[in-house]
Design goal:
The complex is a heterodimer of chains A (about 290) and B (about 230).
Chain A (H helix, E strand, L loop, with lengths): L1 H31 L6 H17 L4 H24 L7 H23 L23 H23 L1 H11 L1 H6 L4 H27 L6 H15 L4 H22 L5 H15 L14
Chain B lengths: L1 E7 L2 E7 L8 E5 L6 H8 L4 E5 L1 E2 L2 E2 L5 H6 L2 E4 L11 H8 L9 H11 L1 H5 L10 H13 L5 E5 L7 H18 L2 E6 L2 H7 L2 E6 L2 E7 H6 L1 H8 L2
Parallel strand pairs in B: 3-9, 3-10, 7-8, 8-9
Antiparallel strand pairs in B: 1-2, 1-4, 5-6, 10-11
Classes of the chains: A mainly alpha (about 290), B alpha/beta (about 230).
Chain lengths: ~290, ~230
């Protein structure tokens, strides 16, 4: 029983990270109707930036905040410079651009920082927090940070005029222009926010998986599975999907299929959801007449 | 508006349209399907590529971006209503006021709009996609009104609505025009209703202006009567 509880809680901790990255995917999907394959590499790259800052002697939390800001800038810049020119291009062209971004970011990180695995610090103490012995302080802290990020985003989108404008642009860009919203800036802002959320996910997962240019490959697969499970156009679904995938992956890995086959769970989920229920649990069904 | 030409890609739809509007008046733009009425409105808002000159309060607005034109106080009630389907009625209305600087007048304006359309108040927390066609049209007009516009462009507000609802909507449009002093440019296929509401009217045929005059005069015109009014 203890072992089960232990696995569930550990699953929730990684699940929170999947949830963040899945949310970033959903945010981009809502605006562009495409899945950003480079989301994981963007997160990886910003985590390296955090590592540089911390290695240069900056206190962890200062580096944390600056990294989020840098992540935001990186996302917004990528939208303005790389994505904007292919705005009206066919779907496959944009997918190729996403994959190119993935490879470019991965190679630049390898070029600057080499492919040697690095340790990344956790801001949380070694001893368990609040005497909770089922979870490490980092796992508990990661869950806490994830929840703060998710709540902030929810409040932003739900209650601020800017958040409302961003939702409007995602739904109906043409109408948004007619009420005077600067659609281009909203899209850049959306990419910035998604990248910032990804940066947090990267910094939270790096102490667990260690820092290397390929660290987000597996994580991104879990995030895809989470986003699809929840419904690729539902932010709430992405979050629930993230936690579900985290727990499922851990339980199956520990008790059923063994750790080596864990990543397969994500792939099976992706294929399974697409076959059985392509809209996920919370996504909307789109029907179009052809 | 002078020598306005516009089109989609290589297809030219408007071949040089000239017309003017007086502030505070209602002008109707009549014509058959495909004559270029909707394109004229889109050209005014910078939604299609245009040539020629468009002036608004003395300022040239041709080839400006749609969002900048909206910020000048030109509110477009588009073809198909442009509802934000997944947002609530009230969120739709607040978006209409998104660019306003006078934030403190937004709440009273919201109340005023609900005064014109009490149905929208009942449905304020409902998803706009669940509203009926008539309610969505009211929402589109209200959203435009929330911009506190100087000019409203109305693209076939009667489209797909029951005759009774159309009458109600047109009565409210008249009240809005009189109470708020908003100029309106009305595109309509329902020529009889449009001429009843409008002060002036223009007739477009295949991208050219063929007739202009007061609404009363156009109502008496034989060609208009035969082709568009049906008597």
């Amino acid at each position: 029983m203890d072992a089960l509880l232990f696995q569930v809680l550990a699953g929730l901790a990684t699940g929170g990270i999947y949830a963040s990255l899945a949310l970033a995917l959903v945010m981009i999907y809502q605006a562009t109707h495409l899945v950003n394959f480079a989301q994981g590499e963007m997160a990886m790259f910003t985590t390296y930036l955090a590592w540089s800052l911390i290695s240069a002697g900056m206190p962890y939390w200062a580096a944390f905040v600056i990294t989020i800001a840098l992540g935001f800038a990186l996302g917004a810049l990528i939208e303005r410079i790389v994505i904007r020119p292919v705005e009206n291009a066919p779907v496959l062209a944009v997918v190729v651009v996403f994959i190119a971004l993935l490879v470019i970011l991965n190679s630049i990180a390898g070029w600057i920082y080499t492919y040697t695995i690095k340790a990344f610090p956790s801001p949380f103490p070694k001893e368990p927090l609040f005497g909770i012995r089922y979870m490490s302080a980092h796992e508990l802290g990661a869950i806490g940070i994830t929840l703060v990020v998710l709540t902030t985003l929810y409040l932003f989108f739900r209650y601020t005029p800017l958040g409302l404008a961003m939702r409007a642009v995602a739904q109906n860009p043409q109408s948004s222009r007619l009420v005077g919203i600067r659609v281009g800036w909203m899209l850049a802002l959306g990419w910035g926010l998604a990248a910032a959320v990804g940066a947090v996910a990267g910094m939270m997962v790096a102490p667990i998986v260690y820092l290397d240019p390929n660290m987000m490959g597996g994580i991104l697969l879990y995030a895809f599975a989470a986003a699809l499970l929840g419904g690729i156009d539902s932010p709430m679904g992405a979050v629930i999907g993230g936690f579900t995938v985290g727990v499922l992956e851990n339980l199956l890995g520990a008790f059923v299929i063994g750790n080596e086959l864990k990543l397969t769970v994500a792939l099976v989920l992706i294929v399974g959801v697409l076959l059985v229920r392509p809209s996920g649990f919370f996504g909307s069904v789109h029907v179009s007449r052809v | 508006m002078r020598e306005l030409r516009a089109g989609y890609g290589h297809t030219r739809v408007l071949h040089g349209i000239d017309f003017a509007m007086e502030p505070g008046s209602i002008t109707a733009l009549l014509g058959a399907n495909g004559a270029g009425k909707t394109t004229t409105l889109r050209a005014l808002c910078g939604m299609v590529s245009t040539e020629g000159e468009v002036r608004f309060s003395g300022e040239s607005i041709a080839r400006r971006r749609t969002e900048d034109i909206a910020r000048l106080g030109i509110a477009h009630v588009p073809d198909g209503r442009g509802t934000f389907l997944n947002l609530t009625t009230e969120e739709n209305l607040r978006l209409g006021a998104y660019v306003r600087r006078d934030r403190r007048n937004v709440e009273p304006d919201l109340e005023r709009v609900y005064g014109y359309f009490p149905r929208l108040r009942e449905r304020r927390r409902q998803q706009a996609g669940t509203l009926s066609g008539g309610e969505q049209q009211m929402l589109a007009v209200s959203r435009a009104l929330m911009l506190a516009p100087k000019l409203m462009l109305l693209d076939e507000p009667s489209f797909g609505l029951a005759p009774l609802i159309v009458r109600e909507l047109f009565n409210i449009l008249r009240r809005i025009n009189q109470a708020e002093g908003v100029s309106m440019l009305l595109v309509e296929q329902n020529a009889a209703m449009a001429l009843e509401l409008a002060d002036h009217a223009y007739l477009i045929e295949t991208g050219r202006m063929v007739l202009a005059g007061s609404a009363a005069a156009l109502k008496q015109d034989d060609a208009v009567r035969k082709s568009y009014l049906g008597y």
